[in-house]
Amino acid sequence: MTRQLSRADRLIHQFDTVLRTLVPHAAQPERPSPAGNIADEPMTEAEREHAVGLMRINHTGEVCAQALYQGQGLTAKLPDTREQMERAAQEEIDHLAWCDTRLQELHGHTSLLNPVFYAASFGLGAVAGAVGDRVSLGFVAATEEQVGRHLDDHLHQLPTSDRRSRAVLEQMREDEAHHERWALEAGGARFPLPVKLGMRLMSKVMTKSVYKL
Ligand SMILES: [Fe+2]
Ligand SMILES: [Fe+2]
User: Fold this and answer.
1) Which of 55, 126, 170, 204 yields a CA-CA distance of 20 to 30 A from 117?
2) In whole angstroms, what is the distance from residue 75 CA to residue 127 CA?
């Protein structure tokens, strides 16, 4: 009986996280947005649209991160690192909420494709977790490495006048680098180049579609 209840509790908790991730404006950050009261400089319409596209990609990236951690949480053992993984997942919720708020400020919307990417990332996370902790942590490290590369590129591409988005992305960059280091130190496998190239290809599909949709 107790077991059934706790399973039901877990299911409700999972469902709650799904909703908080996918329903726009539902995620609650623990830390205030790094954009604080930084003021933007005036932007042209083209600059605003470009900033929206980039921030939408970053938001979807955080949806994927959330799904990845959730999928892994379901199947991975991770006796020593579960707490740290939950800590990292909370920081990803901050990122999610900051990007969501920034999109609203820029009069943009979150991606319509988020449920698709959520489902795919959840599946990948669950498979990695089931294969083993080394692979699971390696997957976190490889993902964070890739996210870091994206963030560098976006920091480069953002209109200079969009100072609020820049502040958000800079803090995210720092957090993701920390997640990557932690996952490797905790014993994550370093993925071979072909796997990383496959992941890069997948992320290209994501960024190209989400920039517009
Ligand atoms: Fe993140
Ligand atoms: Fe991260």
Assistant:
1) 170
2) 8
List pLDDT tens digits, range 113-122.
999 999 998 9
Ligand nearest to the CA of 99: 1
Distance in angstroms (rounded) separating the CA atoms of residues 29 and 205: 28
Domain boundaries, the chain: 46-212
C-alpha 66 to ligand 2 mean position (Å): 9
Both structure tokens of 140: 């976190």
Q: How far is the CA of 42 from the centre of ligand 2 (A)?
A: 31
The answer to whether 92 is annotated as binding is: yes
- Biggest alpha carbon distance in the chain? 61
Residues with CB under 5 A from ligand 2 (ion): 176, 179
Q: 65 C-alpha to center of ligand 2: Å?
A: 7
Amino acid (one-letter) located at 118: Y
Q: What is the pLDDT of residues 104-156, one digit of tens each?
A: 999 999 999 999 999 998 998 888 888 888 888 888 888 898 899 899 999 99
Q: Are 108 and 158 in contact (CB under 8 A)?
A: no
Name the closest ligand to CA 183: 2
State yes or no: 185 annotated in a binding site.
Answer: no
* Closest alpha carbon to 64 in 22, 106, 16: 22
Give residue 87's identity as a one-letter amino acid code: R
176 is annotated as contributing to ligand binding: yes
